Every structure is written in structure tokens, then in C-alpha cells.
Amino acid sequence: MNKDWLCEDQAAGIRFSLEVEERLFRHCTAHQEIEIVQTSALGRVLALDSRFMLSERDEPFYHEMLVHPALLAHEQPERVLIVGGGDGGALRETLRHPAVREAALVEIDAAVIAASREHLATVHAGAFDDPRVQIAISPGEAFLPEISRAFDVIVVDSTDPVGPGHALFEREFLVACREALRSGGVIALQAGTPFYRPDVLTNLVANLRGTFAQVAPYVGFVPLYPSGMWAYVLAGDRGLEVEETVLRERFRARKLDTRYYTPRLHRAAFALPRFVEELLAPVKEGQ
Question: Suppose 185 and one of 104, 137, 181, 223 were both cysteines; which one would form an S-S bond, judging by CB atoms 3.0 to 4.6 Å apart?
């Protein structure tokens, strides 16, 4: 009997394949192709345009490192905006912070939310139905210019900078994010694999340095993603470095329960590998 595989071409000459036990959902929308499958190794997997977005087994590795560094860097994050994130994982982690009174989710494709509601309950864990949540179906770059000084934290849970996700890496969108943040606000963005696609990180950091006073790249590990090493960036109008004792106290006070993130890891994540330091050393504002 032939096995069924879901494959992603992760880089030139590199293909990552997962054995599929059951194909649960497939639909082509005006924006992208959505697939959800049951795999033998990583549980349920979401793919958009044949690119792996998450697996049940390791999605906390990504969502925790995207969300918690930003929210714990803020003393009292009450209003949070998530751009993208239609699977609900970033929303789930955001709502674990008790100070959050309002969480807005802006997703370009309603079908991603609908499919995730039905097939990825372990990921969203009911977050879409939390009374603090407001959902808007819109491109993030169209939604944000209408907002001024509204949010304490913005989390950009985007796809790669191709197709619908391209605009979320551009300077115009980042300026709109800056204008939508309250004083002392923080933005967190995913920045791809610095090993296979260093240009994604360097271009994003250049655009952020031309937009925000403080920019802090960091890295984490996500087995599903190309190379396993994944980059993220925090940015804001003030210092983003938080002492480990403060992180530990906020983590404890907010009663967070995590699989990957810890306050100690938070601090360590900003100690970049030498090759990433060398990538970013020549990057100038707006380059």
C-alpha cells in the first residue's frame, strides 16, 4: 500500500515531508489553498499554499515565543491586536494574560478561522469564543491605518512574505503599527528562517529600525519550520530589555503555563548566534 505524504519545498534542493494518515480539509479561497491533515508524527497539521503553518505537536514552541516576550515586556497589556493568526494559537496565548481586556484578531481569510474552529480545537482551545475577542476579516494593511493609539501590544502572526503576507513586512504597514500603539507599546513579528532566508530577517529589521526607536531580534526552535531555527523581532518606542527577576515575577503573577517559553529562555533568546549577528551588523535603517 502506497503511503500518502504532505510535502513542503523549504529551500532549493530541500523538501520536508510528513506521512499523512487522513486528509481532513482542503479548500481553495480567493487568497490561498488551505489544507489540514492528520499526520503520524506531528498530529494535525495546517498548510497554506503547501507551506506548513503549524502542527499540534510543536505549535506552542512558535506561539509562545511570538506572544509571551512581547506581553511580558509590557507591564499591563490591556488591549492587544493580532494580525493574521487565523488558527487561534496566538490568540489563545494572548488571552492567558489576565490583564488583557480586549483582543482584536484581524485575519484576511475567514475560511482559515472556520477550518481551524472545526479541525484545530487543540490549537485555538475555544479562544475565538472568548468574550474579550473581536474578530475582523480584513487585510492587516487595510485595517491598521484606521487605528490610532489603541493597542498596548501588536502581534503580527503572518505567513511568509509572499502572497497575502507580503504587505505585512513592508515599511508602510509597520508605520501604521507604530501609529496604532499606545505610548510604551510593543510589536512582535515573526521573521522566518535566518538560515535559509536571511533576507526576510534583514529586510524586516531594516524597516523596523527606520520606524521604531528600539528593535530587538531573537530566535527560537520550531521543528516543523525550515531549518528548525526561527527568528522573531520585538520593536517599540522604549527599551525592550526586561530583567529576568521581573520576567519571573510577571510570569508567576499571571499564572502562565507553558511548554516551551520560560523567563530564563526569554533572556537567552536575544543572545543571537554569531551568523545572525553578522547578518544584522550591516543592516541600516530603512535599507
Answer: 181
